[in-house]
Amino acid sequence: MLPSRSAQxxxxxxxxxxxxxxNLFLLLYAAAWAGGVIAYVPFLTVLLPxxxxxxxxxxxxxxxxxxxxxGAIAASLGNIGFGWLSxxxxxxxxxxxxxxxxxxxxxxxxxxxxxxxxxxxxxxLWQLSLNMMLGPLGAWAGDCVPxxxxxxxxxxxxxxxxIGASVGMFVTFPGIAAGEARLWLVATIVVLFVLPILVVAKxxxxxxxxxxxxxxxxxxxxxxxxxxAVPRMWFARLFIQIAEAALFAYVLLWFRSLSETVSDNYTAxxxxxxxxxxxxxxxxxxxxxxxxxxxxxxxxxxAAVVVVGLMLMALADNLxxxxxxxxxxGVAGTxxxxxxxxxxxxxxxxxxxxxxxxxxxNLTNTxxxxxxxxxxxxxxxxxxxSALFMLLAVLAALAFLILVTMPRKFVA
Length: 412
Hints:
The protein folds into two domains: 22-148 and 155-200, MFS general substrate transporter like domains (Growth Hormone, Chain: A); 218-412, MFS general substrate transporter like domains (Growth Hormone, Chain: A, Up-down Bundle), CATH 1.20.1250.20. Helix content is 82%, strand content 0%. It has 15 helices and no strands.
């Protein structure tokens, strides 16, 4: 006599809870993810703007805007396309390796470029190659990390932004490197972080994570995901990312609007503190998620704190209150985005198209960079930063409502 469907499901659920990926792979993966962040944070925030300013002069702002726009489109297409190709080829490692090689070569090749039009082409190609690495790398975690370790993974991923910012400070520190040597230094550090997972990692294999089950169960999973968890998770991240993009670009100007004594170093210190403070909290929240099987609860709490932080920022009329609000916003946002990245992997409907689907989720990272400049230019000159923060608080509140009303069955 065959076991009942409910008995089969209980056996599968029990087996899922027993599956564990090695801590070594999780650490190597977190290092590789940090390497991906290192690949673009110092370059896009410091090295590229400085280079464009040198060769474009007064037109630097316009050229940076154009480069950001074209780069975001290339990144979006590359993440979806190469993620999808890695699905078809049924390999992630090869794409990550080739993307690592090409992105590092293009990074250092951008240094001697003197023509802005040529630089624009190089940056577009660099974004494509970078996402040849990042897209399949994101899907690799979905292939190899069970749901009962997604929280732990998200906590480890929270280290990446702080490392990326630290490397940016390191390579620009006086006496360390200058000019094109900084690009070579960044590329070398990226290789040191990413190469170990390509050479050393031998992750445990979980066949159920690589192939859909019976046809009727697959159809149920797709219907459930498309109608529920996937769009909810997508829009929740988009709304929080729009707020993150706004503050990333305008926090220095906002601080200076409250106090003229605010320096670049003061702002950098605050940003660094926010990134570092979020790491242990994200790790604790991730562990709690795994232990209690509550993947959405920390995301909901994080979105709520983001709302509070933005409201305080909108009401701030002095630097102290502004700082308190920004720290609450920044720490909660760091935790939200890190854990969201990991938990997204459990709601995607089809393992066979995981890379492509994560590429579509990646649009929540690139679309805000296309929206935010126009939104800020339309609001800040007329109504001030307070109005912008109020609008962002409304978007964050929508993210909170989306998550707090999500039925548990969508992520069970």
